[in-house]
DNA sequence: CTGAAAGCGCTTACAG
DNA sequence: CTGAAAGCGCTTACAG
């Protein structure tokens, strides 16, 4: 780290003319337990301060088998939703005396597997993972190996694993019901290609609500391939426009932003031409001429609980309220989903 | 990490009936150098694969004195600019076989000092830091201790330290000149309270250009306190409005977004009521009715070079092109800064 | 009250 | 070609 090497416990012991054990014991606050004299404690601490000693965590880790490191795999740290989550994870982990190793999988299986492997080899004490499509086996293996693990944002319902997620079904149920209540019938959803449960549940929340509203004939879900979101989004929006969709619900923040981009390109006005409902807060939603109605998830709570859970698994503490955390969605109603004027007698 | 402990090099050696040294040598690809038999190499590798061996990096680190970890201190990982930077740092570090420990200082000195200390104790091989106001001493100490260090986004010109930053003077010079060329005279700047060089240089780029354009009488710099940006921004905007400012230049992305929020609240139209020039790309800029002209910084290059530099310092490699990197700004001209109509004969 | 010794998992001179 | 030994910095039984 520096040219003159850091002072070690050995250096302190030598300087004081005592054994390294003594120094270690004192510095770990176990002086009383070992009945070390007050004076000795003072001398050791003074020397430590004077020689600017700080413990080598790598050695402590090797010895203790703990690294005080939590590995985090999100899909993309530069995605606002995940960077917000990451910030909360960082803060909560710091509070509990952990540091965080972040990495981005780009929603890709191989990356996810590689990153998990690296993090485990790095000696992280536990893992917080946003699992991607196809990562079920990788996650199952971690569980088999008893690696402390918490899934965030998504989970595998058939795996016995801790997770901290939104109530996704309820989220889109709220959103769809709001659109129905506002008088919209032709309500379409824009999703992306994935088998992950969070999206499947969001889709269910929509279809279920549509059926209950006797609007099953208008159920319409488009699935975008993430490799080329903008152009696929454009195609979808063109189609929705042709079929006179009245309201569109986007299932992620990224899809929402892309959707707004395309509508702007197409010179379609929100909400005159089409009502719009987005996912997760964004400055964009609030700064448009028609502030966008969106589903808000309490990501602070989700992230906090994820850290609590993983630390509980590592240390046996009980910071988390429960084995799993399912957060309540909230609908922030703004101007992009106004009451629809329905002319009497016509559809 | 797991209930049945991980297989170590010792387990492999025992299973194969050879020494641990042999196993270590083979696994590190030094078989040729030590002239180990082909067959032995195969046996060792097969066993390693079969027993699912992966090296304990903590032990390797202790032994080698390297952690393959780079510590990063940004002001806030959830700020889009820094999360973008962080993502590039992550990717480049991974390419060079490093992992990254991110942390957020919130522009606060004590946090910065604490985080740096923790990261150094964690045994990071090097540091990439966005320094905050007042952190000069902390940075100087790192340099004194020969900690491999690169500053990003800002630097201390009087310190002999590597850095990777934007050409801030040029950035605001470009921006101000553009506004002048478009016919604006009453051009105000919104900055925030700091002594950091990047902001001072941005201010200089503005004042310098104003002077050269003989507009010194219109030089006007407002400095917002970050503890309460929204309400202070509102006050500033009210004042600019009263004094009939024609164009406003915001010196960071956060200030730009806040500025747009306030103008919207005040029902002031861009660019009819006031022309607007922002800093760093944002979806918000592109999705407004009048897409916003902004200063674009090549953050990919800045982040890449920062990693190259710090790895060079750690390993003596030569990935970086130079000792310091000063990136070229680019002005993305959109609709928020149109040519101003100047009636002949009048000011 | 305090020290000598072992050991965490690894790598690297040093022998043979 | 291969093994025994030392040591990275630390902590913790074990002696005394």
Annotate the secondary structure layout.
The structure is a homodimer of 347-residue chains.
Chain A: H1 9-16, H2 20-27, H3 38-50, H4 57-64, E1 69-74, H5 80-95, E2 99-104, H6 109-121, E3 126-129, H7 136-144, E4 149-152, E5 162-166, H8 168-181, E6 187-192, H9 197-212, E7 221-224, H10 229-242, E8 247-250, H11 253-265, E9 275-279, H12 283-287, E10 293-296, H13 299-315, E11 325-327, E12 330-332
Parallel strand pairs in A: 1-2, 1-3, 3-4, 4-5, 5-11, 6-7, 6-8, 8-9, 9-10
Antiparallel strand pairs in A: 10-12
Helix pairs in contact in A: 1-2, 1-3, 5-13, 8-9, 10-11
The structure holds a DNA duplex (16 and 16 nucleotides).
Structure commentary:
The first copy, chain A, is α/β, with parallel strands linked by helices and 347 residues long. Chain A has 3 domains: 47 residues, Orthogonal Bundle (434 Repressor (Amino-terminal Domain)); 128 residues, Rossmann fold (3-Layer(aba) Sandwich); 131 residues, Rossmann fold (3-Layer(aba) Sandwich). Helix content of chain A is 44%, strand content 16%. Chain A has 13 helices and 12 strands. Chain A has a 6-stranded parallel beta sheet with strand order 2-1-3-4-5-11, with helices on both faces. In chain A, α5 links the parallel β1 and β2. In chain A, α5 packs across α13. The relative contact order of chain A is 0.11. The model of chain A has no long low-confidence stretch (mean pLDDT 92). Chains A and B meet through α4, α5, β2, α6 and α11 of A and α4, α5, β2, α6 and α11 of B. Chain A binds a DNA duplex (16 and 16 nucleotides) through α2 and α4.
């Amino acid at each position: 780290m520096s040219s003159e090497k850091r002072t070690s416990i050995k250096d302190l012991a030598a300087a004081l003319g005592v054994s390294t054990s003594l120094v270690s014991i004192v510095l770990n606050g176990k002086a009383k337990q070992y009945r070390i004299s007050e004076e000795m404690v003072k001398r050791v601490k003074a020397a430590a301060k004077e020689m600017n000693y700080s413990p080598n965590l790598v050695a402590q880790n090797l010895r203790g088998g703990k690294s005080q490191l939590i590995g985090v795999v999100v899909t993309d740290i530069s995605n606002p939703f995940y960077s917000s989550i990451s910030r909360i994870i960082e803060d909560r982990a710091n509070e509990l005396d952990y540091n965080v190793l972040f990495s981005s999988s780009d929603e890709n299986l191989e990356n996810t597997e590689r990153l998990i492997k690296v993090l485990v080899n790095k000696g992280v004490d536990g893992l917080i993972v946003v699992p991607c499509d196809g990562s079920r086996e990788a996650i199952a293996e971690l569980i088999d190996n008893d690696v402390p693990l918490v899934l965030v944002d998504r989970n595998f319902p058939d795996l016995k694993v801790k997770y901290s997620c939104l109530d996704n079904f309820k989220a889109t149920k709220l959103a769809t019901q709001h659109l129905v209540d506002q008088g919209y019938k032709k309500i379409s959803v824009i999703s992306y290609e994935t088998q992950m449960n969070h999206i499947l549940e969001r889709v269910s929340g929509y279809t279920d609500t549509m059926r209950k509203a006797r609007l099953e004939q208008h159920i319409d879900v488009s699935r975008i391939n993430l490799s080329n979101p903008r152009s696929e989004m454009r195609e979808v929006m063109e189609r929705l426009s042709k079929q006179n969709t009245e309201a569109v619900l986007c299932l992620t923040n990224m899809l929402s932003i892309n959707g707004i981009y395309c509508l702007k390109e197409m010179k379609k006005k929100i909400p005159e031409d089409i009502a719009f409902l987005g996912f997760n807060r964004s400055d964009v939603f609030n700064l448009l001429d028609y502030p966008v109605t969106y589903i808000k998830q309490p990501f602070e709570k989700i992230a906090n609980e994820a850290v609590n859970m993983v630390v509980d698994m590592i240390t046996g503490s009980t910071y988390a309220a429960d084995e799993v955390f399912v957060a309540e969605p909230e609908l922030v109603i703004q101007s992009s989903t106004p009451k629809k004027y329905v002319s009497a007698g016509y559809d």
